[in-house]
Queue: 2 jobs
Job 1
Amino acid sequence: MTRLSNATLDQLPASVTRPGYDRASVKAGVVHFGPGAFHRAHQAAAFDTLLASDPRWGITGVSLNSTSVAEALNPQDGLYTLALLEAETEFRVIGSIQRVLTGGEREAILAALAAPATRIVSTTVTEKGYCLGADGALDLAHPAIVADLDMPQTPKSVIGWLALGLAERRRQGLPGVTILSCDNLTDNGRKLGAAVRAFAQATDPDTAKWIEQEVRFPNAMVDSITPATDDALRARVAAATGLEDAWPIQRERFTQWVIEDDFAGERPELERAGVTFTRDVHGFEAAKLRLLNGPHSTLAYVGLGLGHASVAQAMADSRLAGFVERLMREDIAPSVAAPAGFDLGGYVGDILARFANPAIEHKLAQIAWDGSQKLPYRILDTTRDALAAGRPLDRLAVPVAAWLRFIERAAASGSPITDPLAGRLLAAGGAWCAVLSMREIFGELSEDERFTGAVARAHDALADPAGYELQ
Ligand code: CS2
């Protein structure tokens, strides 16, 4: 089968949407760290829409830790197919990524970061890519940060790379850029900015000062459910496009991107691609992290315990769907300070419908990754608010207890888990009390008996998940 590329774009059937612009005239304007599935499903699709009216925002992807995206996309001139999953799936070929660099290509990455035309540097490197401590500040003892502080000219972490790239822009007398975090962290832009400045402060204080003045780090909320690529998708894409695509991507049709209106210099007109710019992203961010990601992790850990494999399957289990809806409406929604005019009840209803979408097979195992990094933003912040307001913790303790059970099961069966703290989580057979005492995950909650007591009760009750009444 012929491979997707610039040369074969014309062979696509009319039913497949293709870049509505001349790719040869696109100029590079964005450098993106972490061009994985979520970036390609979400931000790269928005830039693809924007390119139809403004060719200055082509994307250079940078994969620091793997060569697989570069190997899949570069032979395809950066092109890939995005499947928008609905009862009727739409296939769209995205052309905004021009090339993908890998971590070994130091000079090319540095040149891209320090190119005069680069005005946005964005990231989807997941929570763990930020190398933060429990207090949300850069962890200077993190092995990747220790290594980069030692050799700042050959960084391995995103933080080290951003600091080096910004130092190079300053050295060349270039203007600052906007560093746009697109990860699922509360206050993502602020945290990234503080981390990069802290790194620069330790290596190059003049650059730290320059960053403070010339570089902006807007907060942003990103949302679109993006199940991992599987062979079924590859086969569907091949059938629909008639071309071989080494790495197609799938997502739900729904997508939302809310960005704080705080840019260094010109801001791309992403409104044309449905993006919302606002002065304050906090409310949107809290609503999404707490009401979508929190319940997602709940469905993952409780659902896996009940033998379910996908979100839609877990939602078809009325006990679990009912529990998650009560958790959202009664326990989480009261903690969300939504923006003015935001219909929280409607938002909850829409999320439940998105979870139940039978056209999407989103694996619970995928969501279960990196629990130690995700739960603090997704559940523990809500728990702190509930404690402060004197609201009950019983339901909020269930996802935490189900995560502890998930670790115990993995330890007992000797199966690996994907988590940067896996070694420590699985030590001592995954003993739940030991995990619950890890302050880098739970902070002061580890010592709050109201919290530990509620988790202990939920943990007991989940001994037999099938028999447990999810109230
Ligand atoms: C999910 C998210 O994998 C996960 O942890 O909760 O990736 C979720 O699908 C996205 O944040 C939706 O925008």
Note: The longest helix spans residues 282-305.
Job 2
Amino acid sequence: MTLWPEEFADRYRAAGHWTGETLDTVIRRHAGTHPGRIAVTDGDRHWSYAELDRRADALAAGLLARGLRKGDRVVLQLPNVAEFFEVFFGALRAGVVPVMALPAHRRAEISYFCEFAEARALIVADRHAGFDHRELALEVTRAVPALGEVIVLGDPGPFTPLEELRQAGSTPPADPPTADGLAFLQLSGGSTGLPKLIPRSHDDYLYSVRESAVICGLTPRSVYLCALPAAHNFPLSSPGTLGTFHAGGRVVLAPDPSPATALALIERERVTLTGLVPPLALAWAQAAPAAGRDLSSLELLQVGGAKLSEEAARRLGPALGCRLQQVFGMAEGLVNYTRADDPEETVLTTQGRPISPDDEVRIVDDEDQDLPEGATGHLLTRGPYTVRGYWRAPEHNAVAFTADGFYRTGDVVRRTPTGHLVVEGRAKDQINRGGEKVAAEEVENVLLRHPAVHDVSVVATPDEYLGERSCAYVILRPGAGRPRPADLKSFVRAGGLADYKVPDRVEFVTAFPQTGIGKVSKKDLRSAPR
Ligand code: J2J
């Protein structure tokens, strides 16, 4: 992994940002001081800090007993269940590095993660949301013969039951991980053909989690509803589940984020805060009046992952009877929050300001020249929890980071006089589908394999509900048949991509608009008449 240069690491340690503690200390500490306090609620199951801690120890021993070694990778694809944390913390304690797959990922993504990360194991649930992950695992083992084994939560089918890993006792690892080392691989939203893996260390991640918990006012009384997929960076760390554990609060897991499920859980579990993407926040707000649920415990609604319009922002707090916070973050690092003491206008119209005084933010033009204060430009950032490079991607790193280590976020922003950032647009080749990120090139590469497709360009089109949807503009190969839009969508699905990457719309064209230097102008395509 690309580490921080020594002078920066020294500075972050001296400032107290990096403490040398590993991430699992967020549960270990409370297991010692308040063993009986509930850490996780999953349906009718309530695990105390002591139980979660004990399970993580056993899982760590189990992974090592199966021959995994410190530094080995495992692809982790679990839904929002308590075992997610048992496995996550267990792996971390063993020094085994989880790759944080999402439940929506399918054959293309999971095979790629297993292959590229040279994973020793894939850890899945038997079934989730009507989908059999063992069948997917079977396809993955065929595509990636080097994958050591598949470990299944629930009915294992032909694979290893997770239960078996719990039987190995709890001998502490002989060679425990260190805080400056690689803890896990987070996923990039991506703008290129293949998803990128983001190497997060204990030191840097714990800093962002700890400070996020302070900024969001978490206490042992806090009850965080995890409605987004637990592996995603936002619900994991901003302050999310890890921030809640750090504060000694309780995490409630929602099996799905629908208003029916979530509003009932808020009432039953007396939830105090949650984090959502804009379309979900609006769906909850719309459903709340008729749902008849007591939402009086809810104090804070965080919204992030995609731009929240000012008009929507004005509706949310009153509809759900709580305070709103905007969150603009990224799995590569930098996270911005509006603060509890910000004026209301700031909360409604900005995406917040950085966590740390040591977050360096530059706003530049196309030539990397700093723009005057208040101007709109490309956001570059560097700091104590922003990575210096993707994992094993030197060529991509040369373009995604400046020579002096600033990450090119691909976001177009401006900064207000108070230091708050306003997201004005995006320069990266990505569709932000209500917080779910789609790399245009990844979808284009699949469609280009269709025999009737000569060329394709996937772009974002505005959408009232999701903010953006995806549209594939296709030039057909003469004489190679005339597929229907639905055929091409099925082709993407059959290519093994997650459902949210399937183009919402397919349009046939005879040529693409060009830029001055003869490249496809996605800007002009986006504004093409429908
Ligand atoms: C506009 N665009 C936003 C916002 C993210 C906290 C919150 C979100 C993420 C996340 C995260 C946005 N307004 N409020 O990791 O810890 C877009 C930007 C950004 C990209 C990152 C966290 N909040 N975005 O969304 O890695 O384009 O992380 O660069 O999935 O989402 O996506 P991701």
Note: The two ends are 45 Å apart (CA to CA).
